[in-house]
Each structure stands twice: as structure tokens, then as C-alpha cells.
């Protein structure tokens, strides 16, 4: 995500630099020549200079129009990319919320089943409490996540999914024997 934004900004900067450079005029200081020769030269070159100035002005205005279009286009692309990443995060969060709900339900069912058993094992109840704490920690980490770029997002997502899978496997392993 950062690479895309960086490339767009770099392109816009380059287009702006090129468009600005067309509007500048060269330094036209007379060199060490006679005044009469310089005046005659100015008279003969003047129509050519005017034509070049008109061309330069038209090129400059075209470049400005292109840079505005590119700027608008790059802003639209950046907004779309941001919108896509936000939508992906919200979908991920919805799926994770469903898993959290399922985990809470499984934990409460396990706790109730172990409490009904005659020989309630203190070690198993501690494991259930640790799993409950791990579930709440995962919820907090998802709630506190701040978008720091696409690479950080994929790293966070992979780590989060691994932790969630581990938690669910541990919950399945604690099914009580009746």
C-alpha cells in the first residue's frame, strides 16, 4: 500500500516539476557585442521568438492540464486503495468477531461441563481460564490495531490467524470425557 502511494506521489511530483520548468525563461543577457548588431539581431529573431513563446505557452498550458488530470487520477486511485484496504479490514474483523463469539460459547460450555463432573480437575479449570484470557487478549489486539501499511497488515493478519487457530485447537483438545 505504501509503495503504491509512494509511486503516485513521485509521479505527481515529477509531473509538477516538468510543468513548472516549461514556464521559466532563459537568461537573455546580451553578450559583449556592439549595440547595433544586437538590435538588428533582436529584430530578425523577434518573430521566431514570439512563435517559440507561443509554443512554449501552449505546451505549458497542456502540461498543466495533464498534471491536474494526473493529480485527480492519482487521488482517485489512492482513495480506492484506501477504501479497499478498509473494506478488507472490516471483513476480517467481522469474521474474527464471529470466532470470538464461538470461542466464548465453547469456553462457557467447557466450564459448565467440568463443573458438573464429580472430579473437577483444578488444572483443567486453570487451562480454561487461560484460554479465556487468550481469547480476550486477541480481541484487544484486534481492537487496538492501527493501519501501518500493507506489509504490517499482512504480518498482523498472519500472526493473528495463527494465534486464533492455536486457541481453537486448544479448546477442541479440552473436551471433557463423561
Short note summarizing the structure:
By secondary structure, the chain is an all-alpha fold. Helices cover 84% and strands 0% of the residues. It has helices at residues 2-22, 35-116, 122-143, 150-173.
Key structural traits:
mainly alpha; 0% strand; rod-shaped; 4 helices; 84% helix; single chain
Structural commentary:
By secondary structure, the chain is an all-alpha fold. It is about 85% helix and about 0% strand. It has helices at about 1-20, 35-115, 120-145, 150-175. Helix 2 runs parallel beside helix 4. The longest helix has about 80 residues, at about 35-115.
How is the secondary structure organized here?
Blueprint: H1 2-22, H2 35-116, H3 122-143, H4 150-173
Helix pairs in contact: 1-2, 2-3, 2-4, 3-4
Number of strands: 0
* Series of secondary-structure elements, N-terminal to C-terminal: HHHH
Specify Rg, calculated over alpha carbons. Answer: 34 Å
Distance between the termini: 52 Å
- Kindly name the structural category: mainly alpha
Oligomer state equals: single chain
- Based on Cα principal axes, name the global outline: rod-shaped
Profile the largest sheet. Answer: none
Tally of individual helices: 4
Mean pLDDT across every amino acid position = 74
**Helical amount:** over 70%
Percent in strands: under 5%
| Low-pLDDT regions | none
